[in-house]
Amino acid sequence: MESNPVLLESKSSPINLLNEMQQLRLLGHLCDVTVSVEYQGVRAEFPAHKAVLAATSKFFKEVFLNEKPVDGPRSNVFLNEVQVADFASFLEFVYTARVEVEEDRVQRMLEIAEKLKCLDLSETCFQLKKQMLESVLLELQNFSESQNSEEESATRPSTVPTAVAEREPLDSSVAALGRGASPEGPAAKSKEKM
């Protein structure tokens, strides 16, 4: 009697695989490529795994699939005009599927993702930029609404000051205006004499 097939699927395996690959990279184990990056005279080298880079970046996939066999187990890739911190963040992202960067670096991370043709990072940066823009727009809308409500309350006529004015006695300048005197008072008369 045959039994029905069942699916054995691990939810933790992809995360465990990424974590293990990251540990191997950080320790320099089984790395078969060194990526050298340079930007404005600052240079650094990063050991990595061709398979991980090729799986996450079409740029690296094209490079590795088109490279000629070399002497030795390790090949080198040189990237200029890429900042060291940005490439380090790129590597962390492709090895862990997450990276923490400052808000002002998100645009640079998007640029490196596009340069290296890393769709996952590009999409992640784009979504984050969209959220940041929506947040700014919401803040502007709230600010605009609060300004409008302040202006409306300032331009609405108030009944309380009118009622108070009716009860208070008129001062001499207001009484003089009522009798036809100039609103400028004595200063206007001295100008007329000149």
Automatic annotation (TrEMBL):
<keyword id="KW-0677">Repeat</keyword>
<dbReference type="GO" id="GO:0005634">
    <property type="term" value="C:nucleus"/>
</dbReference>
<keyword id="KW-0539">Nucleus</keyword>
<keyword id="KW-0863">Zinc-finger</keyword>
<dbReference type="GO" id="GO:0000981">
    <property type="term" value="F:DNA-binding transcription factor activity, RNA polymerase II-specific"/>
</dbReference>
<dbReference type="InterPro" id="IPR000210">
    <property type="entry name" value="BTB/POZ_dom"/>
</dbReference>
<dbReference type="InterPro" id="IPR011333">
    <property type="entry name" value="SKP1/BTB/POZ_sf"/>
</dbReference>
<dbReference type="Pfam" id="PF00651">
    <property type="entry name" value="BTB"/>
</dbReference>
<dbReference type="InterPro" id="IPR050457">
    <property type="entry name" value="ZnFinger_BTB_dom_contain"/>
</dbReference>
<keyword id="KW-0862">Zinc</keyword>
<keyword id="KW-0238">DNA-binding</keyword>
<keyword id="KW-0804">Transcription</keyword>
<dbReference type="GO" id="GO:0000978">
    <property type="term" value="F:RNA polymerase II cis-regulatory region sequence-specific DNA binding"/>
</dbReference>
<keyword id="KW-0805">Transcription regulation</keyword>
<feature type="domain" description="BTB">
    <location>
        <begin position="31"/>
        <end position="103"/>
    </location>
</feature>
<keyword id="KW-0479">Metal-binding</keyword>
<dbReference type="GO" id="GO:0008270">
    <property type="term" value="F:zinc ion binding"/>
</dbReference>
<feature type="region of interest" description="Disordered">
    <location>
        <begin position="146"/>
        <end position="194"/>
    </location>
</feature>
<protein>
    <submittedName>
        <fullName>GZF1 protein</fullName>
    </submittedName>
</protein>
